[in-house]
Amino acid sequence: MSPAATGPRLSMPSLRPSRKPLTLIALVFGLLLCSAPAANAADLFITADGTLHFKADPGRFNDVSFDEDLGFIDPNPTPVADQTTCEFEDPNDPNAFEGVCVTRFSDEDPIDEAPPADEPNLAADQCAEVPSGPAPAPDNRTTGEQQFFCPNVTKVEVDALDKDDIISAAGLKDIPADIDGGTGADQIFGGQADDQISGGDGDDTLYGEDGEDNIDGDAGNDTIFGGSGSDDLDGGAGSDTLYSGDSSGTVTASGVIVQAASSGSDTIEGGAGDDQIFAGDDNDVIDGGDGNDEISGGDGNDTITGGAGDDNLAGDEGDDVIDGGDGNDEISGGAGSDTIRGGSGDDTLAGDEGDDHISGGDGSDTISGNDGNDEIDGGQGDDQIGGGDGNDDIDAGQGEDSVSGGDGNDHVDGGDNNDRMSGGDGNDVVDGGQGEDSIGGGHGDDVIDGGDGNDALAGDDGNDRVFGGEGADSVAGGDGDDVLSGGNGSDEIYGGPGTDVVDYSDADTKVTVDLGSTDLCGGTNACGGAGTDTIFGIENINGSAFDDTLTGNDLNNVINGGAGNDVINGGFGNDTENGEDGNDRFDEGDLLNGSDVFSGGNGIDVVDYHARELQVSVTLDGVANDGQPNEFDNVLPDVENSLRPPPPAFPPPAPAPDLTAPSITGITVNETRISPNGDGVQDTLDIVARFSEPTSWTFEVLSGNNAIFTQIGQGTVARPSWNGLTAAASQAVSGVYTWRITGKDAAGNQLTPKTGTIVVDRRAPRVRSLTTSRRGGVNRIRFTVNEPATVRARIEGVRKLATIKLEDPGIVTVSWNGRNRRGRLVRPGRYLLVIVVTDPAGNKTVKRLTVRR
Hints:
This protein is mainly β. Helices cover 1% and strands 37% of the residues.
């Protein structure tokens, strides 16, 4: 269209009488600059009564024009007597647009003539002589603001063309607007009714204002404000910034920053691209879509889906449902009882406060339940799981997992493969499941079941029940009065401090047990029950339901025969021997064996002294004098018989003494520096030492020459662990300590001690002299670090800046040129710079500051 050749063109349909009242008028309007390229775009402002004000370049041709197929539509035309004509005029030039009118019309066939003579209410100078071709210059030239008057408007539709337009329907109260900005960087303001706004191509700024608006940014990097009301926002293509508003609504965007207002339940769809979405109060539904998204749910019970990409998702307040989807995600539930699913990828998941349900899904995940009674499922992959505070239910799932129940009475299931688990504080139930597991009960009265595989189990502190299950297991009770069972397989069983019981009540065949000898079944203490066991530091025995032979040691033993016809010998010491069900025999041997108590239980039971050289005197319901000084046995009434000694026999010759000392055949140490602050990073010193033979070992942590921590055990494998606490449960101060492993075998041969050093570092690295400067569009941040460390810097949600490893204390300089990870300049504004400094012990210092672009 040439500016000198074409004037305003209006379609002129016929006006036909109708007896229906006027209910709707729709205006379709086009903004078009047809002047020289230097001309500015026309602006449009709409007032409450539907009056349209055009701001055009004075003196230009066709700054505002109508397409010839556009006009007003009235589906229910009124009678001619009530008809009101719309006018288009220039208040500065009454001759401009003379003879030009736009009138309401029906959807019947239009005509290009003046109205018929029988419609007298239409002035001749308004609609007669409508130009069908170029109008004279005075009629077509704008001199200032143009006004288009049309009363009783019920809807306004605006279609802008190219150029950068400003279109405002802010004055409209009850009249909805349908505005399309077209090409160009437009500014569009909706009114108070329910508006439809499309930005079109270009970097647009769109405001929905009041009402339930539907806003689409289309192509370009748009900024969209929903305003109040339940709005539906779609950023369209490009890197958009969306602010959802104060009420419920839907937001769809791609590569955006979305800021929801403080109230309203929003539905936000991020689409493709790296989105930043910050929801407000109420219950929001957010889908990040593809890309590396950063999403914050805010208050309310939110549903958040990260979709594809490495997402950073935070539920914040409320009971949230969060699904990371594909990618390596970081998810934090925040306050409330949240449901968190990591999805595919190696995810980092934290339940934070509340009773959370957390599932790692595929990948090797890091999961922290933190506060509350949490349910955690590691899923696939080699996971690291910490239950935190509360009574947690943890299923590690498949993979070689590392699990700690934390505080509280936890239930931990290792699932498949070779897992490393600790119940932590509290009375925990830990099940290793399949695989060769390493399990420590921690503090509290724990129940531990190794399950299938060759497991290493330790009850640690408390009165624990430890079951090896299938496989060749190492079972240690630790401190406290423990009940220990190796299960099927050839097991090593260690009692430790306290009064411990070796338990064969679940054995499927009879067992032979001798706590004081390893001469049974090829050099073990016990055989039968589908395996052979080596036993150390055990005081008491529970027999099986079959015909067992049970022998104590020099200690004061309690031996329970269980069902079956058992033979029980307490050995030396003052023993309590309970036959329980079956016809049992209490064998008192041939030598002094202490003052024992016999209880036969059900069945015909016998106390047997026939191996004694001296005469005995037995009362079946009282005291037996077996001829040994100071040995008085208490035979309870449920023992029916006694046997006197036959002629004396001589003991066999003593075996040759064992003079070979044990040795350490292999040792692994996980850390040389620890920061025992409970963050799951380098919190404990863990050692695995293997011995050439069964060894009673002692692990000590020394401050100078004084032991501040001691752990003991027995067996061919030692797995000591230190979490930085002293024997008095106080925190060891920062410094250098010596660890030492000593031991001896059953013959008393001493192990050559093994020592090493461990550094306890509780001090976070210090960041000082932090300064910022900006020159030539580049931000420079300079600071000092007081120790060797790894420094990582990033612009939050924009890009990673640097990873610097300091071998010594020194000065660090980080710069940012205002570009994102794709090398594109970001929008001007304030951005968050995050600096994370991590020392060799795992301590972290985080600095956050604002920089400008």
